[in-house]
Amino acid sequence: MSKKIRGVILIALLAIAIITTAVIFLLNTEWFQLETGLNFNPGNRYSSTKLDYMDVIYESPTDIYTFREGYSETADCPWKFEHNGIDYFLKNGSKVLSATPGKMKNIYWTEHGEGDENYFHVNFEVRFNASVIVDYCLESTPTPEDRDRQIGLIKVQVGEWVEIRQELAIFLNVLGDGSHIHFMVKMNEKTICPMEYFSPEAYSELIDLIHTYHPDWDLCYP
Fold it and tell me: Domain check: are 86 and 185 in the same one?
């Protein structure tokens, strides 16, 4: 075997070793495990086999000032458009409580069209298990200053474990009517109707709240 061929083989083996080491390192980082759910294990913190005990995200029904949209996969619903979550219309200064136990996966913000009153959306996500993520999208920040204020009112950092009903943030309502939290449950990154994930008590409370404003509405329209 020529020196040139041996050199090529050694370089290839070295490259494979470097890539393998990098992949192993990545697989074991908290960031990768939070993002993918790989090896996610809450230990004895809570039961993560099945989510059938989700709670509402408000402290009291009096924190809610209206109800306008639930989950819908069709425009054949009372609000007349597809909507991949539940909108909680919270008053300014209301506590945002964790609907589930889990681990804070991400905190981020996105920009929307300048004609949109809710120009900035502030999101945080809690991973419940390897498949289920709960996403809270806070829609009430028309300026960068308001966005930064809302981010500053988030009380849990990425990587921290949270308990059900734990205070996650204070809601900054600077728009008045229309400010809300767009609440989504994602199964393997796909948003789904959250109805089956609520505890019977929380579901009953939420339906009672909805019927306060709209006596014939349901939570989901698949």
Answer: yes
What does 129-156 look like in DSSP terms, one character per residue? SSSEEEEEEEEEE-SHHHHHHHHHTB--
Other Cβ atoms less than 10 A from the Cβ of 112: the count is 12
What is the total count of domains within the chain? 2
User: Is the Cβ–Cβ distance between 85 and 183 less than 8 Å?
Assistant: yes
Helix (H) or strand (E) run with residue 168 in it: strand 167-170
* Domain limits for position 29: 3-36
For the record, the structure tokens of 88 come out as: 């909680």
Establish if 45 belongs to a structural domain: no
Helix, strand, or coil here: 26?
A: helix
**pTM of the predicted model as reported, rounded to 2 decimal places:** 0.83
Q: Are residues 31 and 105 in the same domain?
A: no
> Does the residue 13 lie in any domain?
yes
| Residue 57 near residue 97, CB atoms below 8 Å | yes
**Pair 201, 126 in one domain:** yes
32 and 66, same domain (yes or no): no
Per-residue pLDDT tens over the stretch 115-171: 556 689 999 999 999 999 999 999 998 889 999 999 999 999 999 999 999 999 999
Nearest CA-CA partner of 85 in 173, 185, 177, 198:
185
Q: For residue 50, is pLDDT > 90?
A: yes
Within-domain flag for 109: yes
